[in-house]
Design a protein that fits this description.
There is one protein chain. This protein is of the alpha+beta class and 170 residues long. It has six helices and ten strands, in the order αββββαβββββαααβα. The protein has a four-stranded antiparallel sheet with strand order 2-9-6-7, covered by helices on one side. Strands 4-3-8-5 form a four-stranded mixed sheet. Helix 1 packs antiparallel against helix 6.
């Protein structure tokens, strides 16, 4: 039901509004994180929630890292409200807005939009998850990359229209 309502809204708006096609990388900046070495136990058990791809829909994490773990790895901090996109394995293509502040690993891409509505882009990526996976993950359980996701074309109405659509969906 959810996706059929979403599809109807996208179709209805497309008929009434001229949409622009842009690559996600043209309307955003992004980065991925990293994982502190598991060999160094002092990097774990701290106070920084460590968000892994299976946890992007959750409001808590099972794993926490220390400041040293953050400083001595490629893990990156994100704030609540950041758009997160899962790149690897079974969660490839999952997308959500972070419910917590925390650090992310290399399997997650944080996306920061220049002006477009976060909810609209999230729903667009959700709606097109299987198209993206079918195009880029052919055969088996593969990985997406930041460059692949940045090259994904997004059909965009004006920002005002994005907000109206997002308000209808949420």
């Amino acid at each position: 039901m959810y996706f059929s309502v979403l599809s109807i809204i996208f179709i209805k708006v497309r008929i009434n509004v001229k949409w622009e096609q842009r690559k996600l990388g043209e309307i955003s900046t992004s980065f991925s994180g990293g994982t502190p070495s598991v060999k160094n136990k002092s990097y774990y058990g701290g106070k920084i929630p460590f968000i892994r791809s299976a946890e992007i829909h959750k409001d808590k994490t099972e794993l926490f890292i220390t400041e040293n773990g953050l400083k001595n790895s490629s893990a990156k901090l994100i704030k609540k409200g950041t758009l997160l996109y899962a790149l690897y394995g079974a969660t490839s293509g999952e997308v959500d807005v972070s419910n917590i502040d925390g650090a992310i690993n290399q399997a997650i891409m944080a996306i920061f939009l220049q002006k477009d509505n976060v909810s609209f882009i999230k729903y667009y990526l959700e709606k097109n998850k299987y198209k993206i996976i079918a195009k880029y993950l052919q055969g088996g359980q593969g990985n997406l990359s930041a460059s692949i996701i940045k090259s994904v074309h997004i059909n965009l109405p004006f920002t005002e229209e994005q907000l109206k659509i997002s308000n209808l969906i949420t």
